[in-house]
Amino acid sequence: MPQDSKIRQVRRIWEAVDEGGLEAALQLTEPGVEWVPHTAGGRVLTSRELLDFFADFKGERQVTGSRLYSVTLEAPDTVLASGSFRLRGGGGIAEFQIQFVYRFEDDRLVRGSTYATRADALDAIARTAAGG
């Protein structure tokens, strides 16, 4: 897969979240993708488990949009996306920033991990590159 197509795939995932929510985004990925949200304490989730986890996490709030700030190829198999999600409910609107590290193998997305900060995401990328 050409490197720019990995970036395009990540952009499409974010666009799908903005247009149709997490469910729409997951329809663009294969069922075997592993998801590792930083708020899940290191647990690796299937797409179904991710939907359930996110439903519990957001509670009565609804995702009203996403904003992709940047997307960069950090290694031949790794894309870093920085952005935010907007939630409405609980008496107001909240926006939280998030860093996603997407890993590819054999031209397909295999893992999406989130981090609270860009520094944490870059550290994780560096550890993986160093074989850790």
Pick out its properties:
132 residues, alpha+beta
Describe this structure in words.
The chain is of the alpha+beta class. It has one domain: Nuclear Transport Factor 2, Chain: A. The protein contains three helices and five strands, in the order H-E-H-E-E-E-E-H. Strands 1-5-4-3-2 form a five-stranded mixed sheet, with helices on both faces. The two termini are 25 Å apart.
Short description:
The protein is built from 3 helices and 5 strands, in the order αβαββββα. It is α+β, with helices and mostly antiparallel strands.
Task: Please describe the topology of this protein.
Elements lengths: L2 H24 L7 E3 L10 H12 L3 E14 L2 E12 L2 E14 L2 E8 L2 H12 L3
Parallel strand pairs: 1-5
Antiparallel strand pairs: 2-3, 3-4, 4-5
Number of strands: 5
Provide mean pLDDT, rounded: 89
Q: What is the terminal separation in angstroms?
A: 25 Å
Number of domains: 1
Using the CA coordinates, give the radius of gyration.
14 Å
The description of the largest β-sheet is: 5 strands, mixed
Q: Looking at CATH, which topology would you report?
A: Nuclear Transport Factor 2, Chain: A
- CATH class term: Alpha Beta
Strand arrangement within the widest β-sheet reads 1-5-4-3-2
Going by CATH, the architecture would be: Roll
What fraction of the residues are assigned to beta strands by DSSP?
35-45%
How much helix, percentage-wise, in residues? 25-40%
Q: What structural category do the secondary elements indicate?
A: alpha+beta
Question: What is the string of helix and strand elements?
Answer: HEHEEEEH
